[in-house]
Amino acid sequence: MRRFLLPFLLVAVLAAGALASAPAAVAATADLTTVTVTGTVGEKPTVAVTKPVAVKQTKSQTVTKGTGVKAVKGSTVTLDYVFVNGRTGAELETSYGAGSVSLPLDEKTQPAIVDSLIGERVGSRVVIAIAPADGMAKALKSDAIKKTDTLLFVADIKSTSVPLKRATGAAVTPVDGLPTVTLAKNGAPTIAIPKKVDAPTTLVVQPLITGTGPVVQAGQTITVHYTGVVWDTGKVFDSSWKSGTPAQFAIGTGNVIAGWDEGLVGQTVGSQVLLVVPPDKGYGAAGQSNAGIKGTDTLVFVVDILAAA
Fold first, then answer.
1. pLDDT given at position 290
2. Which residue among 21, 75, 188, 205 is least crowded, i.e. fewest CB within 10 A of its CB?
3. How far is CA 24 from CA 6, 51, 52, 126, 153, in A?
4. Residue 18 included in any domain
5. 197 and 56: one domain?
6. What's the DSSP call for residue 216?
7. Which among 207, 204, 180 has a CA at the least distance from the CA of 192?
8. For the chain, what is the largest distance between any 2 Cα atoms, rounded to a whole number of angstroms?
9. Mean of the pLDDT values across residues 227-241?
10. What was the pLDDT predicted at 27?
């Protein structure tokens, strides 16, 4: 549902110009004793590397122990971070000033980071030395990072939540003339377009289930299950239910189609929402040819809001 493909921040391409020149060769240490992290949790830390760090296995250290909820496997954490080159001590990238990121703690995410964050508590600051064998240097694709570099990832954990499996709450009776939705046992929706009914020309936002979770705020990352069909054909063009894995999108920030930004901000976690999205709130006159969406197509989505952080 993105307007364009956005690289995940933790594997973003970094500008070589942002890196400092490498220091003269110095024997590296295999631990974190030469890394000093100072500053208050929640504010951008200062990371000083007095001697190059080169680890063969990823290791982590809790700089500040939080007292909040423990992050568990399968949950999603919201965090701020700084990436530093363990060889040069140069800052590579930071989320401070750009907005926090949400990270699912599952096997499909960068395991070197995920494994180190599982068990940490909200309010903690953690420094992770990521070994070259874990592939993060390769993923960053910068000429200024050697494939043998150990990368330091310093993270402040702001929140954690476990996404729902499906929408849950009070059922809502939709108005007449809208597509009807039938749910499978696992919650996957089948969408039927009404016959001989013209597609609406304005955005329709129809809750089908009202969840009891927190209200979705602009700027959050939502975890959702969704199915999308074309009004004229009823054909499914995308569905997270097919893969069995929920999707995550930043909402209310222009990173997804306008129909999602306008229709999902203000809903509650646990809700299921029917969206009827005219072209001007979807992919516009250009459409989305790789999904079989023409510039004149009205789209219909059923979205289960599983989490927001």
1. 92
2. 21
3. 36, 11, 10, 28, 23
4. yes
5. no
6. P
7. 180
8. 75
9. 96
10. 67
Q: Is 47 helix (H, G, I), strand (E, B) or coil?
A: strand
Within a domain: 165: no
In this structure, the answer to whether residues 208 and 268 fall within a common structural domain is yes
Per the structure, the count of domains in the chain is: 2
d(CA 249, CA 88): 34
Asked if residue 3 belongs to a domain, the reply is no
pLDDT at 224 exceeding the cut of 80: yes
pTM for the complete prediction?
A: 0.71
- Does 273 share its domain with 206? yes
Helices marked H in the chain: 111-117, 136-140, 240-243, 258-264
- CA dist 303 and 272 (Å) reads 5
* pLDDT tier at 18, thresholds 50, 70, 90: very low
152 and 190, same structural domain? Answer: no
Classify residue 286 as exposed, middle or buried by CB count within 10 Å of its CB (0-12, 13-18, 19+): exposed
Q: How far apart are CA 118 and CA 74, in angstroms?
A: 9
The pLDDT score that the predictor gives to residue 23 is 41
DSSP state of 29: B
- Give the burial class of 204: count Cβ atoms within 10 A of its Cβ; 0-12 exposed, 13-18 middle, 19 or more buried: buried
Scan for tokens 């926090």, then name that residue: 100
Same domain, 195 and 232: yes
